[in-house]
Amino acid sequence: MHRKLALLALTTSLVGAPILAHAQQAACGGSVSSFRNGVEREAEADGVPASAARQALSHANISQHVLSMDRGQSVFKQTFLQFSQRAVSSSRLQRGKQKLQRYASTFQKAERRYGVPGPVITAFWGLESDYGAVQGDFNTLDALFTMAHDCRRPDLFRPQLIAAVEMAAKGDLDPTSTTGAWAGEIGQVQMLPKDIIDYGIDGNGNGHVRLKTDEEDVIMTAANYINALGWRRNEPWLQEVEIPNNLPWQKTGLHKSGMTVADWQRLGVHARSGSLPDPRLSANLIMPQGRHGPTFLAYPNFNVYLEWNKSFIYTTTAAYFATRLAGAPPYDHSNPSDGLSDAQMKQLQQILKRKGYDVGEVDGILGAGTRDAVRQEEQRLGLPADGWPTRELLAKLQ
After folding, report:
1. Which of 207, 225, 46 minimizes the C-alpha distance to 125?
2. Does domain 14-72+135-228 have CATH number 1.10.1240.10?
3. What are the TM regions of this chain, as residue ranges (predicted)?
4. I want to staple 19 with a disulfide (CB 3.0 to 4.6 A). Which of 121, 131, 155, 160 is the partner?
5. Does residue 100 register a pLDDT over 80?
């Protein structure tokens, strides 16, 4: 689930007229044949031969299954403990370590060139496709054609559809047989066509970038992409810590700024294992399930995870997984307080919305906007402002 998939779940729906980023761009929705013709014209304007564009798009169809998948996402409603315990299984850890050993020379090459450590790449590889075992069986061209035609996010998916047509014209995508995720991602690290074109690396020297089958291409391409998202060489990304009971909770949270490792140390924060990094390094203290659950310092490289996927739960899990592959012990499960049910979360969001907070859609998802609003209300009510919504908070707000 790339940053694009996070946008599927977390951006505001764009209903109505699409953003016209290109003079040849046709409207979304409406007649499928008219939409197809508009995409053909745009692809031609972008340099794809007319016959190739027409041939590729002649196979594209609207998929109701894709639309139902887009409207039925539920993974984001899982808690950090629920998602991370399922995603970072002992089997997946073991296979990840085997990948690191088997392709050690490729990982070393990737880190020399792009500065991205092997465990970081491998964690994404494992989460995105279980190391290639689950790449999706949706026809890629149909998926992108469907999502671009749908008027919720045409500005996001239309460029990806054009890129898929370009890949087809070059023989890098088969309109009838290339499959992937329901939102159009392809390969073992689930990348969209435009990103494959922009960041794809031929890791094994065979003249092609084949992210569905060639592991060396997967590793090098992922490293190039992660580097382009802003990875900082030789710096950590996430570290589990232990915290005192009297922490100034208002300083915690993903969107706080100005705190360094040294600042947290002065407040009594210390590494659960090993030692903390350079005291001058900036750091945010994050608590995915509140102050009684696992607690981490998130360093600047954590922002790259957020670029890959905006979901806080997925992002924290991916970063934690990478620390485990790099040798960190399992997190302390601690004893987090019970969260809210789906109905209670929606009720909380409705209350917060009425109070003027921007929590986005009332969807039961504990996203960044809801967490920030919860933290502000906790502070106002004299509760520990850790951003974790509890029944106590909901009762006080009702």
Report:
1. 225
2. no
3. none
4. 155
5. yes
pLDDT tens digits along 323-375: 999 999 999 988 888 889 999 999 999 999 999 999 988 989 898 889 999 99
Nearest to 133 by CA among 218, 222, 6, 223: 218
* Percentage of residues of the chain with pLDDT beyond 90: 81
Burial, 102: exposed, middle or buried (Cβ in 10 Å; 0-12, 13-18, 19+)?
Answer: exposed
Q: What is the pLDDT of residue 22?
A: 40
Name every residue whose Cβ is closer than 8 Å to that of residue 51 and which is 6 or more positions away in sequence.
none
List pLDDT tens digits, range 268-307.
999 999 999 999 999 999 999 999 999 999 999 999 999 9
pLDDT surpasses 70 at 251:
yes
Q: Give the integer Cα–Cα distance in Å for 204 and 274.
A: 37
Cβ atoms of residues 257 and 394 within 8 Å: no
Question: What is the side-by-side order of every strand in the sheet holding 270-271?
Answer: 270-271, 238-242, 296-298, 284-286
Structure tokens at 96: 């990840």
Single-letter residue type at 164: A
Strands (E), the chain: 138-139, 179-180, 238-242, 270-271, 284-286, 296-298
Position 331, amino acid: Y
Q: How far apart are CA 299 and CA 310, in angstroms?
A: 16
pLDDT at 338: 80
Q: Which residues contact 142 (CB under 8 A, 6 or more apart)?
A: 60, 61, 62, 63, 66
Nearest to 300, CA basis, from 261, 331, 247: 261
- How many residues are given for the chain? 398
- State both tokens at 50: 């007319």
Identity at 167, one-letter amino acid code: M
Residue 205: count other Cβ atoms within 10 Å of its Cβ.
Answer: 8
Domain borders along the chain are 14-72+135-228, 238-325, 342-397
Distance, in Å, from the CA atom of 362 to the CA atom of 342, rounded to the nearest integer, reads 11
Give residue for tokens 């995720």: 181
| Beta-carbon contacts of residue 155 (< 8 Å; ≥ 6 apart) | 14, 18, 19, 21
